[in-house]
Amino acid sequence: HGWRVDLSSPDLDVRVQLNQEELLVSLTALVQPLGSRGSYLEKAGLHPSISWALAKTLDIRPGDVVLDPMCGAGVLLCEAAQHWPAAHAFLGCDLDAGQLAAALRNATAARAAAGAAGGGGRVQLFRADASLRGGLPFPDGSVQKLVTDLPFGKQFGSVTGNRTLYPAALAEFARVVRPGGRAVLLTDLANQLVMRACLACAARATGAAAKEGNEEEEDEEAQAADRGDGAAAEGQPPPRLQDAWVVEHRRSFRLFVKTDACIYVLRRTAASAPPAPCAVADALAA
Questions:
Q1: Using an 8 Å Cβ cutoff, are 142 and 178 in contact?
Q2: How many Cα neighbours within 13 Å face the side chain of 222?
Q3: Contacts of 39 (CB under 8 A, 6+ apart)
Q4: What is the C-alpha separation between 213 and 219, in angstroms, rounded?
Q5: Long-range own/partner contacts, residues 62-66 (CB < 8 A, 24 or more apart)
Q6: Which of 202, 186, 166, 175 shows the shortest CA–CA distance to 280?
Q7: Bridge partners, residue 15, by sequence
Q8: d(CA 41, CA 242)
Q9: Which residues of the chain have pLDDT under 70?
């Protein structure tokens, strides 16, 4: 149609990605500001551009408390603090002392770079285990926004181990995030069944028919979680994990060619946080 291809300086960037789940054709809608490509980083972690995009999805507002409960090298928090400095606090937790040391170096370098440019928020780090009930050192409902790169089970842990880790972590996330708060979680498609068992097993328990396609799966997950809004009625079982979250969006994409990743955007409901994680391993084995 007369279009001229210019790969060095295009007027319009069209990307086509194909994986086992979908064909995705996308146009660039968000452009990361120049000078924010993670040049300040001293220790490698999640790619700065991915970190920025996750923080952008979080919709950070002035006064928010932002938590990464499995912060690793802290790149997510550093990018968030650099670009949304009006938040009240940026908090990072990790159980691994080596990862926290890397996060401290990155946060210190990011703070110095942001200070030279006249901006940036302060990152605070804590050694804590997000998979334990009460493992995060924060009061119930004290966090407005939570974002994390969940272990894929490759560099850390295993996909089998995530059957225990994910529900335990999501239960603890539900404890610290206040009703109406948002969580943005990055994982990969190898852990999709675990996430669905955590967040959508209500649909299977009520005999809802399975649906085909990515968009239909998103609707099923959101509707299943919506049925759990509010406190449990008298005579019903204690709060369940899927009652605590509504799936607002779920989108899979190809992460740097070799990994089929998935982003979950969750909203915290008014339901009480579950006292214990649901038996995901049993559900998957059934």
A1: yes
A2: 15
A3: 113
A4: 10
A5: 62/86, 62/87, 62/88, 63/87, 63/88, 64/88, 64/144, 64/145, 65/89, 65/91, 65/142, 65/143, 65/144, 65/145, 66/90, 66/91, 66/143, 66/144, 66/145, 66/146, 66/147
A6: 166
A7: 26
A8: 37
A9: 1-2, 8-9, 11, 21, 26-39, 115-120, 201-237, 255-259, 276-286
- Sign (positive or negative) of CA dihedral 224, 230, 232, 237: positive
For 274, how many CA atoms within 13 A lie in the half-sphere containing its CB?
A: 24
Q: Which residue has the tokens 């551009």?
A: 49
pTM of the predicted model, to two decimals?
A: 0.74
Q: Dihedrals φ, ψ of 107, to 5°?
A: -65, -40
